[in-house]
Amino acid sequence: MEAQERRDLRRYRTKERALLAVGPEKEDVFHLLDINEKGAGFRYMGRESRTSRMRQVDLYFQDALWLRNVKVSLVQDNLMLNGMIPFRRCGLRFEDLSEEQTAKLESFVKKISAEELA
Fold first, then answer.
1. CB neighbours of 21 closer than 8 A, spacing ≥ 6?
2. Mean pLDDT, the chain, as a whole number?
3. How many CB atoms within 10 Å of residue 49?
4. What is the pLDDT of residues 22-80, one digit of tens each?
5. pLDDT at position 48
6. Percent of the chain beyond pLDDT 70?
7. 114 and 14 in contact (C-beta within 8 Å)?
8. How far is residue 97 from each of residues 59, 67, 74, measured CA to CA in Å?
9. Is 5 left (phi over 0), alpha (psi -120 to 50) or beta?
10. Which of 37, 54, 101, 104 has the fewest CB within 10 Å, making it most exposed?
């Protein structure tokens, strides 16, 4: 996704308890930071990258599964140093969504959006 294209899309800060789950058993769960219909941003603690196996994710809000097995591609995975606790800021692009997934994703974005980001 081109940098200009990313800027042209509205991004929304997510409400608390908006989650992204990864792994065969969805054992890795991350807090979503922002989202739009094209992708999502999240973060996790640690210096080491844990995103190499992210091909599909599940999206949750308040413990309810909204979308299952959404295909994604990694756009960024950057180490951020914030005081003494290192964390990584990541961005995913949603890929090859079915019509049903697209409709559910649009509802999900509306449901979990706290505010538009500049």
1. 27, 28, 29, 30, 57, 58, 59, 60
2. 86
3. 13
4. 877 778 899 999 999 999 999 988 877 777 778 999 999 998 999 999 999 999 999 98
5. 79
6. 92
7. yes
8. 14, 11, 16
9. alpha
10. 37
**Location of structure tokens 């599940």:** 58
Q: Using the 8-state DSSP alphabet, how is residue 35 labeled?
A: E
- Which pair of structure tokens corresponds to residue 64? 């309810």
Name the CATH superfamily housing domain 3-97.
predicted glycosyltransferase like domains (2.40.10.220)
Looking at per-residue pLDDT, the higher value among 31 and 7 belongs to: 31
Backbone angles phi, psi at 100, to 5 degrees: -65, -45
